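BUG: 3D viewer hangs when loading the predicted structure for this chain

Environment: internal workstation, default settings.
Expected: structure renders.
Actual: progress bar stalls at 90%.

Input used:
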Amino acid sequence: MSIRGHSEGITMSGGGLYSLATIGAKHVIDAATPMVVDAINSLPQENFAEGFTFSDMGTADAGTSLSMIGKAIDAVSARAPDVPVSVVYSDQPRNDFNALISNVYGLGPFETYLEQRKDIFPLVSGTTFYRQIVPAGTLDVGFSATAMHWLSSKACNISNHVQAVGAEGEELESFRGQAHRDWRQILLHRARELKPGGKLVLINFARDQQEHYLGNTGGVNMFDTFNQIWQTFLDQGRVTRDEYANMTLPQYYNTVEEFSAPLEDTNDAVFQAGLRLEHIDTRIVKCPFAESFAEHGDAARFAEEYIPTIRSWNESIFFNALAEDRPLQERRQTIEDYYNTYRDMVSDNPEGHGMDYVHAYTVISKQH
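Structure tokens produced before the viewer hung:
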């Protein structure tokens, strides 16, 4: 059985559509903004002496973080009014950097921070957080939201589900092991980048103590629904067994304990590199489309608004799961039929559907 789906082949919706479709992701970042400001306010004053560097890792088209970065710049200006600020945006090479640049420079549908004051320098890197992004000892505050659940590679295909939350046995252990290795790799790169006293504010999808996770907070389980529809396509002969298995999302949701382990184990290379866990808590940000539906009650409207936010981050994986020797139009139609099936399911029976966000909000510092 073939296994396809390296994380660097995954793309969010392009053309600026990602941020427009994922208002919930912005709400998550808005909730983290006070943590970013507090991190800046707690930095040693010497960090501001020759310039300030902020990184936004896994930024997609940058639209969801513009407001947060504006407030971060305000906090830097309050500490050091004349210091130049570099904002380093990074994502994988296939990211839509044209949309990112349009959004940052005010050419898209969002307000930008660039007019706040002079000496602000947005920089773009086509480098993932699985590599070092900025030179060693130059980063003051590193930020990432709703990105580091993507693994560096798919651990294996899952035989009976589409995501690790439904995996069992050796398949689950493979994903868990991959996720733990990846998390340590991410942290070790950040340890090299950070200045002494620098901070990381990382907002990552998680499984909380109640086993809540993205799209599973008490209503219809979103990932089980993904799998239910895909399984139906398999049963109908619309996808093959290999194609069903290839539609395995290269993701894993850590628990608080799993996030914390390398930062608290004195024998771990991450701890020895100087990183220390300052704070971690889990929070749920409600699905904005489900909340809107509770007010307007229009099931068809809810379905039309809700499905694009799902499609924005998983369409490329569904599409790439299909055999390359299928005609292109047939592959495209299969994907359209998949999301239309999901839309009709929500429209016909909307209660319980929604994509509540479950994140671990984490602050990490580098010792002097």
